[in-house]
Amino acid sequence: MPVKSPKQRRILARTAPETFVGRGEQLRELSALGSPKSGQQGLLLLAAPQSGATELLRQTFDELFRQRGGPTPIYFAFSRSDAAVTSAARRFLHTFITQTVAHRRDDPALVNASPSLRTLLDLAAPQDYEWVERLIQSFERAQDEGDERALVRLCLGAPQQAASAGVRTVVMFDDTHLVERLRGESGLGPSLAQSAVQSGVPFVIAGPRRRLFDLLNGHAQTVGLDALRRLHLDRLKESDARTLADGLAQRLGVEMNDETRDLLVQQLESSPYLIAAILEAARTTATRLASFRDFQSLYVDELLGGRVFRRYNAVLEEVAPSLTLRRGLLRVLHESAQGNGGKSPAEVWMKRLGTDAVEFERVMRLLHMHELASFHATYVETTPTTVWRDFLRVSYRLQVAAEPRALVVADTLVETLKRAPRTMARHYRREAALKLGEVMRGFNFERVPKSLLRYDRFLRMYRGLPRDEARAGLDAETDTVLLPQIVHAASCASFHPSITQFCDEERCSVAHGFESGEYTEGVEVVWIAAEVESKLEAGRALVGLWLDRLEQVAQACGFERVRFWLISREGFSAEAAELLNEREAYGSCSEQLDLLTARLSASSAQGAGEASADEFAIELPMSEDTELIAAHTVEQIARRMEFQPEAINQIKTALVEACINAAEHSLSTERKIYNRFRVEDDKLVITVSSRGLSAPVSLSENGTQLADKNGGEGSKGRRGWGLKLIRTLMDDVEFERVDDGTRLRMTKYLRK
Amino acid sequence: MSESLADTTSPSSAVEDVAIVYAGDYVNKMSGQRIERECLQRMERGCRALVINFRDTELVNSIGVSILLGVIDAAEDHDTRVAFSNMSPHTVKLFELLGLTRLVVLADSEEAALAILKEFAAPSPGH
C-alpha cells in the first residue's frame, strides 16, 4: 500500500511517498521512534543487500521532517569518500547541525545545501544559538588540539548536547559498513555504537545484516547493543514489487505490460534497487517494456555495462582492488557457481586466488557481507541469485575468457529469453503450491478429526457434501488425531537437496516438533509432507514411490520418528489409500487440506485472541475449597446450556479435580488458578491453567475400577486419580503446552 | 451395647453397635478427615458396623474418596462392616467408577442400611 502523508514534500527521499511501497510497517516503526509513546530508544536496521534500506531511512527523514513539532530527524550516511575516522566525524557534526537548523527553521532547502558552520550559526533559531555556538566552539578547539579520539567523541556526542538544550532528535546512521574502511586510531563502529547507546537520544544504525553486529562490537562487546530492537529488511514481497514496478513505470513514463512486469519482478527477485535500476534505464534509453524480448534486451545491456554492471563491479572492485585478484576472483566465483551446488572447499579458493590467509579472510568477509558468497569456514558457496550469477557469467566470459562481446551479448540474450518461460512457470507453480510448510508451522497440539488426514474416511463420510455439512460432520466427529506442536518447518530441499529432482522445492516440507507438551526425546517427531502431482486420484504405485522417497529422506537425514503426509489434489485411489494406512502415513486431498487449514486458523485465532463474547473467565486463589467456586460457576453455565443434570455433575467433579490438580502439582509461587469456560453450540470447553511446574501429562485410557483394596496401598498410594477421573467424566481432555506451567483443556459435548 | 445420639457433638449417631456418620455437602480433604476421625473413634469404642450417610452430599473429590478408602481399610482391621447410604445417583456412579462400591454395603436409606448391618453388628453368641 502506498504510504500517505498530509504534505508530500520530498526532501531526502528519492521516491515520491506514494510510490514508496511495501515498507509501510517499517516506516511507521521508524517514524515513531521519537515519540514519547514509542518507548524505544534505539534500533538496529539489519538490511539484506539491495533491500532499499537507504530509501527507507530517507523516507523516514522526510516523514519526521514534515511532522512539525516532533523530533528533528537526522540522516547521515557514511561514504566511501570519507578517508579517515575524523573526516567522517566532522561530516557528521556538520550534517547534524545543518539538518537541525533546517528542521527548526522549517527550511527543507537547507538540508541539501552545504553552508559553513559559521553560516549555520547565523541561521540558527534564537533559542538554539547558544548551544550551536558552544558546540561549534568546542569542535574548533578539539580540531586545534589534534586529539582524534576527543574530536570523534565530541562530534558523535552532538545529539546529546542538543538534547541537553531541549532539542529532541532522531539520528539515523546509514551505510555503517563503510566505517571499516576509515583510517584512524580506533574503530569508528564501536565508538558509534557506544555513543548512540549511551546518548539517551533515539537512533537507528543501519547496515548489512551479515556484518552490522561485528562492526559495532569491534573486538569487545558493546554494552547495551544486544538489548536493542532489531528490524530486519529483506527484499519486497512479490505483490509489493509489482506495485513498485507499476508505480515507477508510470512515473517514469515507461510503457510496460503486465506480463513483462511479472517477469521483471521474478527475474530481479523483487529487489527494489534492481527494479528501479532497470526502469530508470528504460526511461533514459526510451525503451518500452512491452514484451519479454524488450525486457531481456535491456537487461542484457544493463548486465554488460549499465547500472546493474556498475553496482556489482563496484562491489568486486572493493573486494578485490587489484586487477589480477579481481580476475582470479571472477574465475573462482564463476567456476564455483557452475559446480556442485555452487559450493567449493575454502582451501581450493585460497589456492586459486593465490592469496595469503589474511587477504583471503578479508576477501571472504566482504563477499559474505555483500551476500555474494557465503563463507562457512570449510567451504564457500556462491550466492545463487539470478542476476548475480548472470553478472558472473558475462563478466567471466568478457574479462577472463576474453570472448568476443557480440557473442556474449547474443548468447546471454538468447539464454535469458529461453529462461523466461521457465522462470514464469516456476513462479506459477510456486504460487499454486499448497504451502505445506506454512500449514505445518501452524500445528500446535490441535485435536483434529481423523477424516482430515485419512482420505478413505473422508471419501466415505464427506466427499461430495456441501462444505457446511462436511464441516458440521467434522465438528461432531469424536475420532481425532492430536497434531504435534511444530517448532521448525522448512523445505525438504533444505535438508535433502536431491529431492528437487522429483518436485519443486515448495512442494515438499519437513517439520520438526513434539507430540506432547513435554519437550523430551521420546515425543520428538518429524513430519514430512509432500504434494503428489496427479491429475486424477493418485494410484498405489505413485504413492508407494513417494513413500519410498520420503523414507530415504528420513534415513539420509537421520530422522528417527517420522510421520509421512501425502497430499494429492484429487485424493487417492482405494488401493493407494490402503497403502497409506498400511504404512501408517496420512493422505489428504486439497479439500481436506482446506478444511484443516480453516480449522487451524480458527483455533489459532481463538488461542491468540482475547475472550470471546461466549467465554467466561475466573481467577481463583489456591486455597481451601476455592474449587467449589469454580464448580458452582460452571454449574450455572452448564445449566444455561441445558446440559443434563448428570452431565452437570460430571463437569463439576472434573473441574474440581482439575483445580485440585493445579493446586497440588504446580508448586506455583503466585498461587492462582485460571479457569476459562468457552460456550460453543455443541460443547463446553473448560481450560484450567496455573503457573509453576508442568503437571504430569500422561492420561490413562481407562479410568475405571481404580480402587484396588487388595493392593495394600495406603490412602496416599491411592492419590493421583484426579486425571483419570477427569478423563472418564469428560469427552476430550488434553494438556496444552505452555511455557511456564500447565494448561488442561476439557471438553463436554452437549447431548440433548 | 449402644451409644446414645445425645453424646455426640458431631453430626453422627450410633444405634446399638452401629455408628452413623453424616458426610457433609462436599467430601474433600477436610470433611473426609472429619468422617475418618469419627469413624475411627466409633470403631475404637467397639462399633461393629458403620453407616456413612451421604444425604447432604453434593460433591465428592478424589482426596475425599481416598480418605473413605482409608476408613474402609481401617474398618476391615477392626472387623467392622461399612455401609454407604442416601447417595445421589452421581455419587453412586462416581464410587462405582472408583471401585468403592465393591467394598461396602450400599443402601438407599439409613434405615435400610441399619437393617442390613443390624445382624452383623449383633454380639456373637457367648460374647
What does this entry look like structurally?
The complex is a heterodimer of chains A (752) and B (127). Chain A has 752 residues and is an alpha/beta fold. Chain A is 49% helix and 15% strand. Chain B is 42% helix and 20% strand. Chain B is built from 4 helices and 7 strands; from the N terminus they run E-E-E-H-E-E-H-E-H-E-H. The N terminus of chain B is likely disordered. Chains A and B meet through helix 28, helix 29 and helix 30 of A and strand 5, helix 2 and helix 3 of B.
The helical percent of chain A reads 40-55%
User: Biggest β-sheet of chain A: count, sense, barrel?
Assistant: 5 strands, parallel
Overall number of strands of chain A = 20
Distance between the termini of chain A: 51 Å
Structural class of chain A: alpha/beta
Radius of gyration of chain B: 13 Å
Alpha-carbon distance between the two ends of chain B: 12 Å
Oligomer: heterodimer
Short description:
The complex is a heterodimer of chains A (752) and B (127). Chain A is an alpha/beta fold.
Task: Pick out its properties.
heterodimer; A: 752 residues; alpha/beta; globular; disordered N terminus; B: 127 residues; five-stranded mixed β-sheet; 4 helices; 7 strands
Topology:
The complex is a heterodimer of chains A (752) and B (127).
Chain A: H1 24-31, E1 42-47, H2 53-66, E2 72-77, H3 85-104, H4 108-111, H5 117-123, H6 126-145, H7 148-156, H8 158-164, E3 169-174, H9 188-199, E4 203-208, H10 212-217, E5 229-233, H11 238-252, H12 258-267, H13 272-284, H14 292-305, H15 307-319, H16 323-338, E6 343-345, H17 346-353, H18 357-369, E7 373-375, E8 379-382, H19 386-400, H20 405-432, H21 436-441, E9 447-449, H22 455-461, H23 467-476, E10 480-482, E11 485-491, H24 492-495, E12 508-514, E13 524-532, H25 540-557, E14 562-568, H26 574-582, E15 586-588, H27 590-608, E16 615-621, H28 626-640, H29 645-665, E17 672-679, E18 683-690, H30 722-729, E19 732-737, E20 742-749
Parallel strand pairs in A: 1-4, 1-5, 2-3, 3-4, 13-14, 14-15
Antiparallel strand pairs in A: 6-8, 7-8, 9-10, 11-12, 12-13, 16-17, 17-18, 18-20, 19-20
Helix pairs in contact in A: 1-2, 3-7, 5-6, 6-7, 11-12, 11-13, 12-20, 14-15, 14-20, 16-19, 19-20, 25-26, 28-29, 29-30
Chain B: E1 12-15, E2 18-22, E3 26-27, H1 29-44, E4 49-53, E5 59-60, H2 62-77, E6 81-85, H3 89-97, E7 105-107, H4 110-121
Parallel strand pairs in B: 2-4, 3-5, 4-6, 6-7
Antiparallel strand pairs in B: 1-2
